[in-house]
Amino acid sequence: MSLLSELNSISPLVKEYAKDVFQTFGLTKEELLEQTRCNIYLAHKNTDTSVKKVVKFYRRCKKSSQRFYNEVAIAKKLKHPNVIIFEEAASFPKHHALIMPYCELGALYNMIGKVPIHISEHYFLQTCSAVKYLHDNFIVHRDIKLDNILVDANQKVYLTDFDMSCTVSWESSIVHHEAGTPGYIAPEMVMSPKGSYDGYKLDVFALGVVLFCLIFEKDVGDSEMKKLDYLDMVKTYIWTFPVHFYKNVLECMLEPDPKARWDMRGLIKGLGQASWLAARVSNL
């Protein structure tokens, strides 16, 4: 089934309501968490203020509506412990909305420089598990970044935000046109924004940037980071035990040539070479 056919089949299944999302689902808005292409709010249940929810808004215009229905179409295929799933998807007179569980520690960028290496590894392996699951099911995320990896109070990680995601066939993982967030976009897309690319390799590059940020304790959103060449920094850095293991991993994930870059199978195999990771990696 084509994506357009999927979107058309899902549209009638999303319920329409006359009131806004907060009134309809008995929620009270607390604060704006994020304001990018979607507004994301923290809210609580009116019947129990300790129960927090996240409400993601999409404007009711053609482009935003398409992203909303795309996220619904992708999310309905997913079931994995490290993939966040919305609880409600609904449309209202002026907007669409998704209601999702609240992750108390927020996005992974909040953890940069605040946790020891073994906790960073814990976060990264869970994210790898989620991305491997997507690729095993012929789905390309297309916007992997620190902001789209959430952490709950139990240090459990959830990959989120599937409005740019797409499905591919078992025969080919080729995707078209530019998508993603500056700083996480692979070199082949930067050089040719309207080209065709191996979607799986795009995700691995973005995942490599996430690992880079965890290891080097830097956020690609920082102004200084925008001037850096990740791979050059990896190659010239003075590595020490135990993080020296990640030098080769990062080089293979951030490889400029997508044909030579690792896919998720290569990444999992590479991570398994570390004795302290082998047992956990075998379960991914």
Q: What Rg, in angstroms, do the CA atoms define? A: 19 Å
Strand content: 15-25%
- Low-confidence stretches are none
Number of helices: 10
Strand order of the largest sheet: 1-5-6-4-3-2
Please state the average pLDDT score.
90
Keywords: ATP-binding, Kinase, Nucleotide-binding, Serine/threonine-protein kinase, Transferase
GO cellular component, one term: nucleus
Domain Protein kinase: 26-277
InterPro entries: Kinase-like_dom_sf, Prot_kinase_dom, Ser/Thr_kinase_AS
Please supply descriptive tags for the structure shown above.
single chain, globular, 3-stranded antiparallel β-sheet, 13 strands, 284 residues, 6-stranded mixed β-sheet, alpha+beta
Task: Give the gist of this structure.
The chain is built from ten helices and 13 strands. The chain has helices spanning 3-10, 21-24, 62-75, 117-136, 187-191, 199-216, 230-236, 246-253, 264-271, 278-281; strands spanning 15-16, 27-35, 39-45, 48-59, 88-91, 95-101, 106-107, 139-140, 149-151, 157-159, 166-167, 174-176, 196-198.
Structure description:
One of its GO terms (molecular function) is protein serine/threonine kinase activity. It holds the Pfam family Pkinase. InterPro entries: Kinase-like_dom_sf, Prot_kinase_dom, Ser/Thr_kinase_AS. The protein has 284 residues and is of the alpha+beta class. The protein is 34% helix and 21% strand. It has helices at 3-10, 21-24, 62-75, 117-136, 187-191, 199-216, 230-236, 246-253, 264-271, 278-281; strands at residues 15-16, 27-35, 39-45, 48-59, 88-91, 95-101, 106-107, 139-140, 149-151, 157-159, 166-167, 174-176, 196-198. It has a six-stranded mixed beta sheet with strand order 1-5-6-4-3-2. It has a three-stranded antiparallel beta sheet with strand order 7-9-10. A two-stranded antiparallel sheet has the order 8-11. It is globular, with a radius of gyration of 19 Å.
